[in-house]
């Protein structure tokens, strides 16, 4: 009986911890917060880290080229959408950009509003075999 109670308390604590973690995530993700996607390019491949993406939320794609080679992050996901690109200390504004080029060991940040759900492919136009995709899950804002 005592052991079982102990187990119940422990699992309750675990649930509370998980709930606290979710709350912490939510309070970070206020209305004005950005959702961030990290894309690194290494050995001629894209490696993507993404959280579940929400519609209509300011979105940041931070791309790092770790190779000694020039690459491109290109996608039709920006079609007709206003974007703000920061690269090499320069900020440029555009609409419907096709992507960004990154010289060896450089970074670029693309800011835009994710408005279209679904799978968004991206690729390197220099090396056509380099591909990846972002999944825009239609997660409701809490
Ligand atoms: Cu490439």
What does this structure look like?
It is a single chain. This protein has 142 residues and is α+β, with helices and mostly antiparallel strands. The chain has one helix and ten strands. The protein has two domains: 30 residues; 102 residues, Cupredoxins -  blue copper proteins (Immunoglobulin-like). A six-stranded mixed sheet has the order 2-1-3-8-5-6, with no helix packed on it. Strands 7-4-9-10 form a four-stranded antiparallel sheet, with no helix packed on it. About 8% of the residues have low confidence. The structure holds copper (II) ion.
Secondary structure elements and their pairing?
Layout: H1 2-28, E1 35-42, E2 45-50, E3 58-65, E4 71-75, E5 82-87, E6 90-95, E7 99-102, E8 107-113, E9 118-123, E10 131-136
Parallel strand pairs: 1-3
Antiparallel strand pairs: 1-2, 3-8, 4-7, 4-9, 5-6, 5-8, 9-10
Strand order of the largest sheet: 2-1-3-8-5-6
Low-confidence stretches: 20-30
CATH architecture of the largest domain: Sandwich
Q: Which class do the helix and strand fractions yield?
A: alpha+beta
Report the helical percentage.
10-25%
CATH superfamily of the largest domain: Cupredoxins -  blue copper proteins
Total strand segments:
10
Helix run count: 1
The profile of the biggest β sheet is: 6 strands, mixed
The CATH topology of the largest domain: Immunoglobulin-like
Key features?
142 residues, alpha+beta, Immunoglobulin-like, 19% helix, binds copper (II) ion
């Amino acid at each position: 009986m005592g052991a079982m109670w102990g187990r119940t308390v422990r699992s309750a604590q675990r649930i509370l911890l998980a709930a606290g973690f979710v709350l912490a995530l939510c309070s970070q993700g206020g209305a004005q917060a950005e959702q961030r996607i990290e894309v690194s390019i290494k050995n001629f491949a894209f490696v993507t880290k993404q959280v579940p993406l929400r519609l209509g939320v300011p979105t940041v794609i931070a791309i790092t080229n770790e190779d000694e080679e020039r690459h491109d992050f290109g996608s039709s996901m920006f079609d007709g959408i206003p974007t703000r690109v920061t690269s090499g200390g320069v900020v440029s504004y555009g609409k419907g950009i096709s992507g960004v080029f990154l010289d060896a060991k450089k970074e670029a940040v693309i800011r835009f509003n994710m408005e279209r759900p679904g799978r968004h492919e991206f690729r390197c136009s220099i090396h056509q075999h380099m591909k990846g995709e972002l999944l825009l899950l239609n997660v409701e804002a809490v």
